[in-house]
Structure formats: structure tokens, C-alpha cells
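Table S2 (text version). Query chain:
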Amino acid sequence: MALKRCENGHYFDPGKHTSCPSCGVQMIDVPTRPKAGLDAPPAQSPAAQKATPAPGPGSQKVSGDDGVTVALGMKKQGIDPVVGWLVCTAGPDRGRDYRIRSERNFIGRGEESDIAIRGDNTISRENHASITFNPRNRQFRLHSGTGRGLVYLNDEQIDEASPLGSGDRIDLGQTKLLFVPLVGETFTWEE
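Corresponding C-alpha cell output:
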């Protein structure tokens, strides 16, 4: 797969996209950010750069919003610590582990998924399922996604959000995962 670099520094697959999906349509004012890091200022589409007037005398820049949505735990602590894991016990990626972070974690086989299970083609590319961790009450939940495949929790199909407990088994496609929480009643990341 040969990647192409757009004028804003984003890499994309020209076999899948006719133009850079990060930049969006050139005539729409959509701020973008290079994937390299959170510290880079957001880039603007060429149309937005032309339409943005230069700051005049007495104008002020509003600080505090850099355009990136961060998890609540990450905002308070400056990092996004692991709150639990999924361990693959059966399937093509047997033995691999996946980190669960605070708030929403989307599961799929695509690279953009928070939990990317790449070896199992029976898992939807995007949003086969998701796991949420609520930092306020320290509870985990498993959600069925918008993908085609079904989600099973302890051998029962789920259609609604279901609480997750230590040692629960999750089945997606040909993959079986074991849920291992870190944060809970006995441990929490201190604020």
C-alpha cells in the first residue's frame, strides 16, 4: 500500500480516497489537525484560510480550546491512563492484549479503532462494539456497535449496554476476549 501525502502533511491511501479524508472538502470550513501530535495547531482548509480575516487592533484570541476533545481523566491528570485490558484467549490474535482507556473505546478491526483487532476479518472494520468506563462511578459497560456482527457477553447476545465485571468473556466474530479491570473498588488513579 503506497500512501500519498497531502499539502497539509496528512497521509492517506489513494486507493480508498480521491482526496485527503483528514482535510475534507476544500470549500467547507473544517479545521483539521495533523495526526502527528496534539501539540500542533489545527490546520485550516485553504478556503478557511482565505476567509479568515487578519486580527485587527484590540482583537483577542480565545484561549483554552485547541479543538481536540480529551477524556475527562486525561484533562484532569494530563495523561490518559489505562483503566483495564482485554486479553484475546481464542481467535487469530490469541495472546494479544488491548488497553482500555477512560470513557469510550471503540472496537473494530480498522486501524482507527481504539481497540483494533486486526487479525479477525469477521469483526466489523468500524464500531463492532464499544467499552465505556465511567470515571465518576468507576463502572465498565459493553455496548453493541453499529457494525454487522453480533456481540456476546458470557455467551449471551447483547443488544443494550451491559455491565462488565472482572473475568467476563466477550465474543466478537471468531475472537474471544477476557475482560480484566484495573480501576475499580480497590484501585483508582488519584486526582
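Notes on Table S2: The helical segments are 46-51, 72-77. Residues 26-30, 35-63 have pLDDT under 50 and may be disordered.
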